[in-house]
């Protein structure tokens, strides 16, 4: 519905523009609701076009808009226009895939280099899976099982120090099923006693792998987590 309304408004706005083609951009005044609405919709259109990350031939674009609005014969048939757009979006898709692959390879190499050096540091333990950790604070409570729910405080960062998540900042610990998180967490937290605090260095294949997560965690990112195990809290409310 929103897209339909915007599209209709765009037609109205562009029709007005075609009737006032002699008005220069610097002469535009936003002195009434119509002009403000037109400019606001133009902002949306501009943002959408900019998101395509390519250069446009503005005269050709405006010519097509005016020809369409004025009912003139178009320079491209719908079939020809469709082929041009399809080819463009295929190129854009291939470009994004290539860029993502390049980034994944770069992150994988950076992660492997970091972990190789980090493994040599005093106090760092490496497990059979490649997970690395160091004990920041020892605890004397129980150790959770994979089937348990655990209550933790944590802070997650990338190799460059960028913090992407933190329960400390939110001011509230979280409780979750241990088998419902990334492999590095599932393995690592089971090593901890309640009351302890560990720092984990998690290889990409034990984190989010080539898929990544959202816009912050890129493909093949090695992640660093400081985790404080506060308790074991299962659904039956029997806290440990």
UniProtKB/TrEMBL annotation:
Name of the protein in question: Peptidyl-prolyl cis-trans isomerase
Keyword Phosphoprotein listed: no
Protein's organism: Mariprofundus ferrooxydans PV-1
GO cellular component terms given for this protein: membrane
EC annotation from Swiss-Prot or TrEMBL: 5.2.1.8
Keyword Amino-acid biosynthesis: no
InterPro entries in UniProt: INFPOTNTIATR, PPIase_dom_sf, PPIase_FKBP_dom, PPIase_FKBP_N, PPIase_FKBP_N_sf
Parts forming coiled coils: none
GO molecular function, one term: peptidyl-prolyl cis-trans isomerase activity
GO biological-process terms attached to the record: protein folding
Record keywords, A-Z: Isomerase, Rotamase, Signal
Occurrences of domain PPIase FKBP-type (ranges): 147-233
Signal sequence bounds: 1-21
Reactions catalysed according to its record: [protein]-peptidylproline (omega=180) = [protein]-peptidylproline (omega=0)
Protein family per UniProt: Belongs to the FKBP-type PPIase family.
One Pfam family matching this protein: FKBP_C
């Amino acid at each position: 519905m929103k897209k339909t309304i915007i599209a209709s408004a765009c037609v109205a706005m562009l029709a007005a523009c075609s009737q006032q083609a002699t008005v220069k951009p610097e002469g535009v005044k936003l002195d009434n609701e119509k002009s403000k609405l037109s400019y606001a919709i133009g902002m949306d259109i501009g943002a959408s076009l900019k998101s395509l990350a390519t250069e446009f031939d503005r005269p050709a674009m405006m010519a097509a808009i005016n020809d369409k609005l004025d009912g003139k014969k178009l320079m491209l048939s719908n079939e020809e226009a469709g082929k041009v757009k399809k080819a463009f979006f295929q190129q854009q898709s291939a470009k994004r895939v290539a860029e993502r692959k390049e980034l994944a390879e770069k992150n994988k190499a950076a992660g492997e280099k970091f972990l190789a050096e980090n493994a040599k540091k005093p106090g760092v333990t490496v497990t059979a899976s490649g997970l690395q950790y160091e004990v920041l604070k020892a605890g004397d409570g129980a150790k959770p099982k994979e089937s348990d729910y655990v209550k933790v405080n944590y802070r997650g960062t990338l190799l460059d120090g960028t913090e992407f998540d933190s329960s400390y900042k939110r001011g509230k610990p979280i409780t979750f099923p241990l088998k419902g998180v990334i492999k590095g967490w599932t393995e690592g937290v089971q090593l901890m006693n309640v009351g302890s605090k560990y720092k984990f260095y998690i290889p990409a294949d034990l984190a989010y792998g080539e898929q990544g997560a959202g816009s912050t965690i890129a493909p093949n990112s090695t992640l660093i987590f400081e985790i404080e195990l506060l308790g074991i809290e299962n659904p039956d409310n029997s806290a440990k």
